[in-house]
Every structure is written in C-alpha cells, then in structure tokens.
Write a structure and sequence with these properties.
With 110 residues, the protein is mainly β. The protein is built from no helices and nine strands. The protein has a single domain, classed as Rieske Iron-sulfur Protein. It binds FE2/S2 (inorganic) cluster. The site of FE2/S2 (inorganic) cluster (FES) has 10 residues, from loops.
Length: 110
C-alpha cells in the first residue's frame, strides 16, 4: 500500500463488531470493523471533544459514552443530539493482512 496510507493494525486483531484506537503522529483515530466493512474516523466527538473510543459500536455507528450521541461511521453524521456536527471520516483499506488508513484529508469535508 502506497503513501499516504499508513499501516495501523493487523486486520486479524480487529474482529467484526470491534474497533481500535490508533495514533498517527499524535492524532487519534478510531478504526472499526463491521461485517465486510471497515471504517476510520477521528477519535473525537464533535459535541465536546470527548474520545469516541470510550464508547461502543452499534452496527455501523459509534456511540459517544459521555452524552450518548451516535455517529454514522460511513458519513460521520450525528444521528441524534446533543451532537449536531459530523465527525471526520478517513479512507481505510486492507492489504497484506494489515489495515491501512489515509490520515491526510477527511473524506467528508470539502
Ligand atoms: S461529548 Fe459526545 S455527545 Fe457529548
């Protein structure tokens, strides 16, 4: 896998229904595995900058453990209040048994 992708985890270490927190140059990301799909988002709730990795996965959604907002992992959109702003989503890929993340630019921000 070529730059700007960065290997962040062994795919076998994240079973479906699981996620992990990864750090790339001091920035925190959350990588989640749901069935055949993989997602990467910033590990930061858009409501009060709380780590989403403290929360739990509900299918293709991550639930913030502080006030309960859930975010769609594909679009980054909040599904209910109090959060009203999307979280950043990033490109993720599988190759050579590794999970790769492109941290350079969110896919859902213009
Ligand atoms: S900090 Fe996440 S919903 Fe409030």
């Amino acid at each position: 896998m070529d730059s700007p992708f960065v290997a962040v985890a062994r795919a076998a270490d994240i079973p479906s229904g699981g996620f992990t927190k990864v750090d790339i140059a001091g920035r925190a990301f959350l990588v989640a595995h749901v069935g055949e799909d993989w997602y990467a988002v910033e590990d930061l709730c858009s409501h009060e900058d709380f780590p989403l990795s403290y929360g739990c996965l509900e299918g293709g959604r991550i639930k913030c453990s502080l006030h309960g907002s859930r975010f769609d992992l594909k679009s980054g959109r909040p599904l209910e209040e109090p959060a009203d702003t999307p979280i950043a989503t990033y490109r993720v890929a599988l190759a050579d048994g590794q999970v790769w993340l492109d941290p350079t630019a969110p896919t859902n921000r213009g």
